[in-house]
Amino acid sequence: MIQNTIDAIKDAETAAEKKVEAAKREASKMKTEVKEEADLFRNAQFQKAEEDSARAMDETVSQCREKTRQTKQRIAAEVAEINKEAAEKMEGAVEAVIRSLVG
Q: How open is the CA angle 36-42-44, to the nearest 5 degrees?
């Protein structure tokens, strides 16, 4: 009877050890899965951030090009206006010089 009790305790200890080992294996497996999922999530977030950054950079470059185009257009118009005014004043200046030489 005591032997039966001792054997039952040993069997219970063996079964408990097996359950503990199985739980450790399952916990290790779950830890690995969680780490893999975290890595996938982190990589997806990095990729999304890179794509968002590239899209923002493209938009910024596009805006800069448009502002440059507008500025060049405005400068060209101003230069044309200055050249027109200079040409108009040149005629008067030439006439004034001729008058002063002749006169």
A: 105
DSSP 21: H
Q: Give the whole-angstrom CA distance, residue 13 versus residue 17.
A: 6
Q: Which residue has the tokens 């999922």?
A: 37
Tokens of 35: 């780490």
Of the CA atoms within 13 Å of residue 68, those in its CB half-sphere come to 6
H or E segment to which residue 27 belongs: helix 2-102
Whether 95 has a pLDDT exceeding 90, the answer reads: no
Q: What's the rounded Cα separation, in Å, for the pair 97 and 103?
A: 10
**Alpha-carbon span 37 to 45, nearest angstrom:** 12
**Residue listed under structure tokens 């006169």:** 103
Give residue 102's pLDDT: 85
> Exposed, middle or buried, 89 (CB in 10 Å: 0-12/13-18/19+)?
exposed
Can you give the pLDDT at residue 35? 97
